[in-house]
Protein backbone atom coordinates (compact mmCIF):
# COMPACT_ATOMS: atom_id res chain seq x y z
CA UNK A 1 0.00 0.00 0.00
CA UNK A 2 2.73 2.27 0.80
CA UNK A 3 4.25 1.40 -2.50
CA UNK A 4 1.06 2.16 -4.27
CA UNK A 5 0.76 5.46 -2.46
CA UNK A 6 4.28 6.29 -3.39
CA UNK A 7 3.64 5.35 -6.96
CA UNK A 8 0.44 7.37 -6.97
CA UNK A 9 2.29 10.31 -5.50
CA UNK A 10 5.01 9.97 -8.08
CA UNK A 11 2.44 9.77 -10.82
CA UNK A 12 0.69 12.79 -9.42
CA UNK A 13 3.95 14.62 -9.12
CA UNK A 14 4.79 13.60 -12.69
CA UNK A 15 1.37 14.70 -13.83
CA UNK A 16 1.71 17.95 -11.92
CA UNK A 17 5.16 18.46 -13.43
CA UNK A 18 3.72 17.76 -16.84
CA UNK A 19 0.84 20.15 -16.25
CA UNK A 20 3.22 22.81 -14.94
CA UNK A 21 5.50 22.23 -17.93
CA UNK A 22 2.58 22.51 -20.27
CA UNK A 23 1.43 25.70 -18.54
CA UNK A 24 4.94 27.13 -18.75
CA UNK A 25 5.13 26.16 -22.41
CA UNK A 26 1.78 27.83 -23.04
CA UNK A 27 2.90 30.94 -21.17
CA UNK A 28 6.16 31.00 -23.08
CA UNK A 29 4.44 30.47 -26.41
CA UNK A 30 1.82 33.13 -25.61
CA UNK A 31 4.62 35.45 -24.54
CA UNK A 32 6.47 34.75 -27.80
CA UNK A 33 3.24 35.36 -29.74
CA UNK A 34 2.72 38.66 -27.89
CA UNK A 35 6.29 39.70 -28.62
CA UNK A 36 5.81 38.82 -32.27
CA UNK A 37 2.54 40.79 -32.36
CA UNK A 38 4.26 43.74 -30.69
CA UNK A 39 7.07 43.58 -33.24
CA UNK A 40 4.52 43.45 -36.06
CA UNK A 41 2.66 46.42 -34.55
CA UNK A 42 5.93 48.34 -34.21
CA UNK A 43 6.77 47.57 -37.83
CA UNK A 44 3.27 48.68 -38.87
CA UNK A 45 3.66 51.85 -36.78
CA UNK A 46 7.05 52.50 -38.36
CA UNK A 47 5.54 51.99 -41.78
CA UNK A 48 2.61 54.18 -40.95
CA UNK A 49 4.97 56.87 -39.58
CA UNK A 50 7.07 56.63 -42.73
CA UNK A 51 3.91 56.85 -44.81
CA UNK A 52 2.74 59.84 -42.77
CA UNK A 53 6.08 61.55 -43.27
CA UNK A 54 5.92 60.79 -46.99
CA UNK A 55 2.43 62.32 -47.21
CA UNK A 56 3.56 65.40 -45.25
CA UNK A 57 6.59 65.75 -47.53
CA UNK A 58 4.40 65.53 -50.63
CA UNK A 59 1.99 68.14 -49.22
CA UNK A 60 4.88 70.45 -48.31
CA UNK A 61 6.37 70.15 -51.79
CA UNK A 62 2.99 70.89 -53.36
CA UNK A 63 2.47 73.89 -51.08
CA UNK A 64 5.98 75.18 -51.86
CA UNK A 65 5.41 74.87 -55.61
CA UNK A 66 2.09 76.73 -55.37
CA UNK A 67 3.60 79.55 -53.32
CA UNK A 68 6.61 79.77 -55.64
CA UNK A 69 4.41 79.96 -58.74
CA UNK A 70 2.18 82.58 -57.08
CA UNK A 71 5.25 84.67 -56.28
CA UNK A 72 6.58 84.34 -59.84
CA UNK A 73 3.21 85.45 -61.21
CA UNK A 74 3.17 88.41 -58.80
CA UNK A 75 6.73 89.39 -59.79
CA UNK A 76 5.91 89.25 -63.52
CA UNK A 77 2.68 91.18 -63.05
CA UNK A 78 4.32 93.96 -61.01
CA UNK A 79 7.21 94.22 -63.49
CA UNK A 80 4.71 94.59 -66.33
CA UNK A 81 2.70 97.20 -64.39
CA UNK A 82 5.91 99.10 -63.59
CA UNK A 83 6.88 99.20 -67.28
CA UNK A 84 3.40 100.42 -68.21
CA UNK A 85 3.53 103.07 -65.50
CA UNK A 86 6.92 104.32 -66.68
CA UNK A 87 5.81 104.46 -70.29
CA UNK A 88 2.61 106.36 -69.46
CA UNK A 89 3.78 108.34 -66.42
CA UNK A 90 4.05 111.62 -68.28
CA UNK A 91 0.84 111.10 -70.27
CA UNK A 92 -1.31 113.27 -67.99
CA UNK A 93 1.20 116.14 -68.05
CA UNK A 94 1.56 115.98 -71.83
CA UNK A 95 -2.23 115.97 -72.28
CA UNK A 96 -2.40 119.11 -70.12
CA UNK A 97 0.40 120.78 -72.13
CA UNK A 98 -1.17 120.13 -75.56
CA UNK A 99 -3.47 123.21 -75.37
CA UNK A 100 -0.37 125.36 -74.78
CA UNK A 101 1.24 123.87 -77.87
CA UNK A 102 -1.94 124.75 -79.78
CA UNK A 103 -1.75 128.32 -78.42
CA UNK A 104 1.87 128.67 -79.58
CA UNK A 105 0.93 127.44 -83.06
CA UNK A 106 -1.90 129.99 -83.25
CA UNK A 107 0.51 132.72 -82.11
CA UNK A 108 2.98 131.74 -84.84
CA UNK A 109 0.22 131.93 -87.44
CA UNK A 110 -0.70 135.44 -86.24
CA UNK A 111 2.95 136.48 -86.29
CA UNK A 112 3.15 135.45 -89.95
CA UNK A 113 0.17 137.75 -90.65
CA UNK A 114 2.07 140.73 -89.16
CA UNK A 115 -0.36 141.26 -86.28
CA UNK A 116 -0.19 144.13 -83.80
CA UNK A 117 2.93 143.90 -81.55
CA UNK A 118 0.97 144.71 -78.40
CA UNK A 119 -1.60 141.99 -79.13
CA UNK A 120 1.23 139.50 -79.75
CA UNK A 121 2.83 140.39 -76.43
CA UNK A 122 -0.47 139.92 -74.61
CA UNK A 123 -0.97 136.57 -76.36
CA UNK A 124 2.48 135.32 -75.31
CA UNK A 125 1.84 136.49 -71.74
CA UNK A 126 -1.43 134.52 -71.67
CA UNK A 127 0.33 131.42 -72.96
CA UNK A 128 3.11 131.83 -70.36
CA UNK A 129 0.59 132.19 -67.52
CA UNK A 130 -1.37 129.15 -68.71
CA UNK A 131 1.83 127.08 -68.92
CA UNK A 132 3.01 128.21 -65.47
CA UNK A 133 -0.39 127.43 -63.89
CA UNK A 134 -0.41 123.89 -65.29
CA UNK A 135 3.08 123.22 -63.92
CA UNK A 136 2.12 124.64 -60.52
CA UNK A 137 -0.94 122.38 -60.44
CA UNK A 138 1.39 119.43 -60.91
CA UNK A 139 3.44 120.48 -57.86
CA UNK A 140 6.15 122.69 -59.38
CA UNK A 141 7.37 125.50 -57.12
CA UNK A 142 9.90 128.19 -57.92
CA UNK A 143 12.75 128.72 -55.46
CA UNK A 144 12.83 132.19 -53.96
CA UNK A 145 16.25 133.67 -54.80
CA UNK A 146 17.15 137.20 -54.08
CA UNK A 147 20.40 139.03 -54.25
CA UNK A 148 22.22 138.83 -50.93
CA UNK A 149 20.91 135.37 -49.93
CA UNK A 150 23.53 133.13 -48.31
CA UNK A 151 24.94 130.53 -50.74
CA UNK A 152 23.49 127.07 -49.99
CA UNK A 153 25.06 124.10 -51.81
CA UNK A 154 21.85 122.09 -51.38
CA UNK A 155 19.84 124.68 -53.34
CA UNK A 156 22.35 126.55 -55.47
CA UNK A 157 24.87 125.69 -58.14
CA UNK A 158 27.67 128.25 -58.34
CA UNK A 159 28.45 129.11 -61.97
CA UNK A 160 31.16 131.63 -61.24
CA UNK A 161 32.56 133.99 -58.63
CA UNK A 162 32.97 137.69 -59.13
CA UNK A 163 34.39 140.36 -56.87
CA UNK A 164 31.61 141.34 -54.49
CA UNK A 165 30.18 144.81 -55.20
CA UNK A 166 29.98 145.34 -51.43
CA UNK A 167 31.32 143.67 -48.29
CA UNK A 168 27.80 142.45 -47.45
CA UNK A 169 27.71 140.28 -50.60
CA UNK A 170 30.92 138.30 -49.89
CA UNK A 171 30.02 134.57 -50.02
CA UNK A 172 26.46 135.42 -50.94
CA UNK A 173 24.37 135.26 -54.12
CA UNK A 174 25.09 138.26 -56.35
CA UNK A 175 23.00 137.22 -59.37
CA UNK A 176 20.66 134.36 -60.41
CA UNK A 177 21.35 133.01 -63.91
CA UNK A 178 18.65 130.29 -63.89
CA UNK A 179 15.87 129.78 -61.35
CA UNK A 180 15.75 126.63 -59.28
CA UNK A 181 12.62 124.51 -58.90
CA UNK A 182 11.02 122.11 -56.44
CA UNK A 183 8.63 119.33 -57.34
CA UNK A 184 6.72 118.96 -54.11
CA UNK A 185 9.53 119.13 -51.54
CA UNK A 186 12.26 117.69 -53.78
CA UNK A 187 14.75 119.90 -55.59
CA UNK A 188 14.51 119.03 -59.29
CA UNK A 189 16.76 121.83 -60.56
CA UNK A 190 19.36 123.78 -58.60
CA UNK A 191 19.44 127.52 -59.06
CA UNK A 192 22.46 128.59 -61.10
CA UNK A 193 23.95 131.59 -59.34
CA UNK A 194 26.91 133.93 -59.32
CA UNK A 195 28.48 134.42 -55.90
CA UNK A 196 30.58 137.25 -54.58
CA UNK A 197 34.12 136.71 -53.40
UniProtKB/TrEMBL annotation:
Gene3D superfamilies: 3.90.20.20, Head domain of nucleotide exchange factor GrpE. Residues 1-11 have a biased composition (Basic and acidic residues). Residues 38-48 have a biased composition (Acidic residues). The keyword Zinc does not apply. It is found in: Cytoplasm. Its main location: cytoplasm. Keywords: Chaperone, Cytoplasm, Stress response. Residues 1-51 are annotated as: Disordered. The keyword Chaperone applies. Homodimer. Belongs to the GrpE family. Participates actively in the response to hyperosmotic and heat shock by preventing the aggregation of stress-denatured proteins, in association with DnaK and GrpE. It is the nucleotide exchange factor for DnaK and may function as a thermosensor. Unfolded proteins bind initially to DnaJ; upon interaction with the DnaJ-bound protein, DnaK hydrolyzes its bound ATP, resulting in the formation of a stable complex. GrpE releases ADP from DnaK; ATP binding to DnaK triggers the release of the substrate protein, thus completing the reaction cycle. HAMAP family: GrpE. This is Protein GrpE. It comes from Splendidivirga corallicola. The gene is grpE.
